[in-house]
Amino acid sequence: MIDWGSLARAIHVLSVVVWIGGVSLVTTALLPALKQKPPEDWIRDFNEIERRFAPQAKVAVLLVLLSGLYMLYAYSLWNRFVDARFWWMHLMVAVWLIFAVLLFIVEPLTIRNTIREQQPNEASRRLLARIIWMHRLLLTLSLIAIFAAVGGSYGLF
């Protein structure tokens, strides 16, 4: 018989690895490499990276949500949200919510169009710098949330 809770946990962890691992690659390797390119090239390359990574990230973020909700239900963990000792669960939800809003609302409605319409000039360099800064902040929050969730799950806090 399948242990659905264990399956949900495995899907959850795998999805977080794909999602945040991808964010890490984009943040620490791909975006900094774009800074070395002329604006017309980085805009084209950014669009190609986004076109490939955004769908993967969206699927992973949705799987994190569904598996997380299932684990809350299956293990009756809802009460942890009213107990301050489980602050790390709030952090996980906050990071998920920030990414969900960015991926499903902000990115398609504003960022994608801003970059596609961007003229290759000094303003486009400032835009890339803001994108890199935002990615670094989100990656840092994500890594803190992962550390806190694993540590909290195993009694570190």
Give the class from helix and strand content and strand pairing.
mainly alpha
Distance between the termini: 34 Å
Low-pLDDT residue intervals, each spanning 5 or more residues: none
Shape: elongated
Q: How many individual domains?
A: 1
One letter per element, helices H and strands E, the order comes to HHHH
Structure report:
The chain has one domain. The longest helix has 36 residues, at 39-74. Helix 1 (4-34) runs antiparallel to helix 2 (39-74). The radius of gyration is 18 Å and the shape is elongated. It has 4 helices and no strands. With 157 residues, it is an all-alpha fold. The protein starts with a helix and ends with a helix.
Give the helix/strand layout.
Blueprint: H1 4-34, H2 39-74, H3 87-116, H4 122-153
Question: Top keywords for this entry?
Answer:
single chain; 157 residues; mainly alpha
Q: How would you sum up this structure in a few lines?
A:
With 157 residues, the protein is mostly helical.
